[in-house]
Structures are given as structure tokens and as C-alpha cells.
Design a protein that fits this description.
With about 300 residues, this protein is an all-alpha fold. It has 11 helices and no strands. The relative contact order is 0.14.
Length: about 300
């Protein structure tokens, strides 16, 4: 048993560093592919100015120009790279811990994770990521929803936004507003994301027959399975995301509409019913396919290149 544990733990630090680097590369791809879709999603979630995704995209383009689709990109480009790096690093760390546990429990069998363990490893990745993703997404949402006219802007950029939120409202009530619902979203979303992808990859290897390896799965199939995993991620967690966006675009003090996460859920239900929790799902799912496909493809191919 000790030999099995030592074998699985060998090179753990080096492997984690590779996981983090591959995740960062995937994060950059994720932002560049997904930012235009994301600003449309946030506008639909937080205002009633647009009738649908096409209307939102056309009005943003007409009134604010093409560069508006990359508003607030600097923060996620740096931050999401870090977030995805943490997600993959934490997921593979948890996966290796489960493999060690499985090897000790059944020394003569493969240490392969059960699907419940894959979900828990993904949820762990999401929870680990929350410390980064909550303030990063809060800043991005504030920048995306502020008035376009220079004279009416509330923040000059990401650093000014961080400074104002922290100085005026503190860390917990300011910069980290919406973290409770972010925890729920991240655990559910990334548990589902990694589970769905690993299930499809395992099924592909089984279909290939005896002797097939994960490394034999071609890049286009990795991208396809990654894209489908992205759809599963959002379908499983979208109502949490809607509430998070509402809370993180809400005013402060007397201008605040929502007292808490529970109050935001209740007000959304009373005002809009079940439909209110799915506003903006169209552009989100449209975005999820290429973004998640690109993320998994870049991460997997980076890992293969590093060995």
C-alpha cells in the first residue's frame, strides 16, 4: 500500500505546476473567445433595455462600437487565466488524492475515480476558485454595466473599481459582494463540467477498444466533448449565475435593491417567475460551446506537449 501511495504521489509538485500552466493557457483562450458573448449575457441579466440577445448585441454595436464587446477584458484576461489555472490545478490535485485513496482501498485494481469522485473533485476546484472568481467577476460586471459616456462613467478602469469598492464598502460588502451565491454556482458548475468531460473522454477510450489511451483521442473530439461539457455546466448552474449578476450590479446603501442572496432569489421569483432565472441563457449557451471547447482542447494539448 505504501508503494502505491508513493508512486501516485511521486512528482506531485511538478505535475501540479504543469496543471496550473496548462490551465492558464486554457484561461487565456477562454477569455478571448467568450468576452463578446459575456457582455451580452450580463446586459440581458441586469437590465430591461433589450428584448433579446440579438437586440442587445446590435444596440451595443450601434451605440458603443465594436470595442464595447471587449469592455473590461483586461481584468478577466489576467484574472480568468489565473482562475482556470486554479481550477485545473485543484481538480487534478483532488483527482490524484482520490486515486491514492482508491489504490489503498483496492491495491489490485485500477485507481480510477468513480463519477461521484469526479464530481467532487470538480466541485473542490470550483470552491478553490471562488476566492479569485468572485471579485474578478464583480469588477468585470461593474465595468460592463456602467454608462458608456465618458462623463457618466463610475470607474476609469479595473484598479479604480477595486479601489472604490474597497474604500467605500470594504472587502466583504464591497469587493466580495455576491460571494455566497458564487460558492454555490462554482461548486455545482465545475462539478458538472469536469464530470461531463471526463465521462465523455472515458466513453471515447472504451469505444476505441483494448489498448486505447486518453492520449489517442484526437484534438477535434476533445474540443467537441469540451463544448458539450460547457453546455452542461451552464444548464446546471445558470439560476445561481443570474442571482450573482443581479447582486454584483446592484447599488449600495439606499440604492440597494437586494438585502441578501435569499432576498434576490425571492424578488426575482415574485417579479419574473421561473423565467427570470433563465434570462440570457441563449447567448450563454452559444458562448459556452466554443469557449469550453477551446479551453479543454488547449489544456489537454498543452499537457500532452509538456509530457
Amino acid at each position: 500500500m505504501a508503494d502505491a501511495e508513493a508512486e501516485l504521489e511521486a512528482g506531485g509538485v511538478g505535475r501540479t505546476l504543469k496543471d496550473l500552466f496548462a490551465g492558464a493557457a486554457g484561461g487565456v483562450a477562454q477569455v478571448l473567445l467568450g468576452q463578446p458573448f459575456d457582455i451580452v449575457k450580463v446586459r440581458l441579466q441586469t437590465t430591461t433595455e433589450y428584448s433579446n440577445a440579438v437586440d442587445a448585441a446590435s444596440k451595443i454595436y450601434k451605440n458603443e462600437g465594436p470595442l464595447a464587446f471587449y469592455k473590461g477584458t483586461l481584468t478577466p484576461l489576467i484574472g480568468i487565466g489565473a482562475c482556470v489555472s486554479v481550477q485545473f490545478g485543484a481538480f487534478h490535485y483532488a483527482r490524484r488524492r482520490f486515486e491514492t485513496r482508491n489504490a489503498l482501498a483496492s491495491p489490485h485494481g485500477p485507481p480510477t475515480l468513480s463519477y461521484t469522485q469526479y464530481y467532487l473533485a470538480g466541485a473542490f476546484a470550483g470552491l478553490t476558485n471562488t476566492a479569485l472568481s468572485s471579485p474578478i467577476e464583480h469588477i468585470r460586471i461593474r465595468l460592463q454595466t456602467q454608462p458608456h459616456a465618458a462623463a457618466a462613467r463610475l470607474y476609469t478602469g479595473p484598479l479604480d473599481c477595486i479601489s472604490q469598492l474597497t474604500r467605500r464598502h470594504g472587502l466583504a460588502r464591497g469587493l466580495y459582494r455576491g460571494t455566497a451565491v458564487t460558492v454555490l454556482r462554482e461548486a455545482q458548475a465545475y462539478g458538472t463540467w469536469f464530470l461531463a468531460f471526463e465521462w465523455m473522454m472515458a466513453a471515447e477510450v472504451r469505444r476505441a477498444g483494448v489498448g486505447a489511451k486518453r492520449e489517442d483521442v484526437p484534438a477535434w473530439k476533445i474540443a467537441a466533448y469540451g463544448g458539450l461539457a460547457g453546455e452542461a455546466l451552464w444548464i446546471s448552474s445558470y439560476p445561481f449565475d443570474v442571482v450573482k449578476s443581479k447582486m454584483q450590479s446592484d447599488g449600495f446603501g439606499e440604492k440597494s435593491r437586494y438585502k441578501s442572496m435569499r432576498d434576490c432569489f425571492a424578488q426575482t421569483w415574485r417579479a419574473e417567475g421561473a423565467r427570470g432565472f433563465w434570462k440570457g441563457i441563449g447567448p450563454t449557451l452559444l458562448r459556452a460551446m466554443p469557449v469550453s471547447a477551446g479551453t479543454f482542447a488547449v489544456v489537454e494539448m498543452t499537457m500532452r506537449a509538456m509530457g
